[in-house]
Sequence to fold (322 residues):
Amino acid sequence: MSQEILLETGTNEFEILEFFITSQKDEDSPIEVNSFGINVAKVVEVIENPGLELTYDNVNPCFMGVIPLRGEILPVLDLSKWLKLPKNKSRNEIIIVTEFSKQIAGFLVSGVVEIHRLDWTQVESPDKLVASHKENCIVGIVQIEEKIIQLLDLEYMISDLTGVTMEAKNDRFISEKKYRALIADDSKLIREMLRASLQESNFEVLEFTNGFDCWNYLNQRASETPDDLLTKQFDFDIVITDIEMPQMDGFTLTKKIKQNSLLKNLPVLLYSSIITEELYHKGQSVGADEQMSKPDLHKVPQVSVKLIEKYQSKQHIENFPR
Fold:
């Protein structure tokens, strides 16, 4: 399966691969079908399980082992174990091969259904019932006809399983000036890590859980600020946004900012796990000033300062030409 999504960037559309895990509490209980979804941009291909079985001597009960895949070593994780679902073992189980955050991983599931093209406005935030499997593992829910599809935060799963927080311990960058950053990301974990990293680097931070709320705030603040004072009095120096978010994605948010005459000089940094060489052009097409993958958390403050200073220098030249 190709990662290239044949969608016009900035339309707030995306595609998910629907898959399912069958579960059964005990032999006398009915089999339940649990429906989940993953952004197609993270899916490399779908393969049949070549016969991997869970072993009980693994350090992590979710880890099934590794398999060779076209010259790569693919670690395979049993998604049902992490979600604490008593999976009903079935024939022809499927491994979804993914690539995100600069790493590949395979996730064992019972089967796949189809690809759905959706609009981010169709994605709702999960309520307590849906998120009961594990805190923070469900980032959104979609209802298609009578079916509820839960969108999984696989980045959180990998971080939870490996203990890797993407937090740099050395070479901490600290800005000489105080800057203000606006963050839009639906992952609580990522927001917390971004906030901590930026605050330690001399930034003030305001957070939003989706692009829609972020855009409403920016648009309102811009409309309240006189044009000639906007660059001097506007609340924030940079926007750092995820791509995958309910209600409005980062591509659409970036496009709206860059097409707004009052906001177009506000630098935008796309910070997402789905930024790859193949998809980099999508961020460029909507005017993103920089794009970074989520393992590069420690680089965000320094890159942000460079973008801010670049815009401030440009505005100074425009206001005081030689």
User: Anything to note?
Assistant: Residues 179-319 form a domain with the Rossmann fold fold (CATH 3.40.50.2300). Residues 1-5, 165-170 have pLDDT under 50 and may be disordered. Residues 52 and 92 are 12 Å apart (CA to CA).
